[in-house]
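User: Show me a protein chain along with its predicted structure.
Assistant: Here is one chain, sequence first, then structure tokens.
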Amino acid sequence: MLYRFLAIVSLSLVGLLAAASLRATDALPAVVASERAPTPVEVQAVLPQHVELEVKAQGSVMPAVETQLISEVSGRIVRTAPSLVVGGAFNEGDVLLELDDTQLVQQLKQAEAQRKRAEAEHKHARFEQERAATLVRERLTSRAGFENTNRALRVAQANLSDATARLEQARRDLERTRIVAPYDGRVRRESVDVGQFLPRGAQIATLYADDAVEVRLPINDRELAFLDIPLSLHGHIPADKRPNVTLNAEFGGQKLQWSGTVMRRDAQIDNYSRMVHLIARVPTTEGSMPLPVGLFVDAVIQGVSLNDAIVLPRSALRDDGQVLVVDRENRLRFRSVDALRLDGERVLVREGLSAGERVCTSPVATPVDGMYVSPVIAG
């Protein structure tokens, strides 16, 4: 039993020694630190360039010249021109409407007769004055008699002037029974017809010239900084400072375009919208589609030119006015910039970046200053 016990103890000790030896010689597994892969981001190289700025606006077309046609004499309408209807076209000098002139012809004859009487009285008064002057020189009449003939002559002269004015007025009134078009244009509204009696001062129609139209374009006052327009009190823009404007609209199922010029601006800012209105004029050119009055158009106004401007995608600018710059070690760096203008999907940067720098244009969820990235040139 003793030998069996010693044998068991000896075997146990040998096993323990063998296990300890194996544990001491066993190699420990190498611990490998896991490194996070750099975040791939799109970048754009900063490249200063020449940029032509544009200012966009919308507005409705209105006549450049609009006239309220008013009756200057009374009378019954005896004829209207076929063009005196809404939308009708006419030329300068066309007779648009005629009034019954019977009464005015009679008044003209009376004015002519009155002037003839005044001429006769004036001629007789001058003869009497000259005869009295001769008698005064020959001392055959008194000085008082001569003064009476002078007074009679002055009265006759006044009567002749009055009769002449009345005759001219009667002739003008007779001419005004024929109402003629003051220019080439179209009828916007009309409110008369044959047989209607028109009192003096009654409205006949609203006309507008078709050689040019205008568009009032509301502009935010901050946008005026991008237009080379002098801020003068009278509002008219000098000819060499008038920016060009392009108008676009869809009319009759077609996409059409017109070219014009900004002529002036309103002297005051709109109290409700806080907008400044620019007035663009579009001439009607031969062979082109006229710009219909009342049409709603989109306008693009030519602005100032910028040299060495930096243009970036809108996505590159963060809400805090910063961009993410990728340095030479491919690390992200926060950079504050001076954004000149947000223009749709792009942003114009004035200061804060240098040529050749790389700007991150893709969104980064939680950017950290100094984090590694894998830059990819934006296509």
